[in-house]
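ok so I'm stuck.
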Amino acid sequence: YGQLVNEELQLVTLKGKEFWGSVTVVKKTDEKGEIYFDGIIENITNLKKSEETKEKYFNQLVQAEKMVGVGTLTAGIAHEFNNLLAILKGNTQIALKATDITTKQSFMQIVLEYTDKAAKIVSDLLSFSRQTVSKKSVGYIVEVIESVLLVTQSKLEKMNIITGRSLQ
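replied:
not stuck anymore, here's the structure
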């Protein structure tokens, strides 16, 4: 016997109705050496429709999962920006109330530092959206903790929380 071929094709009945068919054909030769084809056509329209429905629902599920991820990412970014804004606002308020220039400059330096951090977050987001390779660097966490403590120290003391900064 010859080569067996199986294909899924969109076919048309004699009455003009379209359907999906699984066509299995084998090439044969009769006793006179004449070539002919023997085959079976199975109507698989319902199977194709269910596959299309399954794929449609799968794509919807993937899209929903992406949206959940975007929501989580957005919440994290909003939280991070709220923290930065609180630090910026607190240091600006303290700088405005400070009477000596050294204190004002110290708090405004913190404002500049955290403005740069906010700009870095925006830059990272843009980099992420372009799917570029990001660079990682080592940071000094003590400065970050000290600036947060500086802003929150009075509130912490009201709650009877003592930090190393309170002892200085």
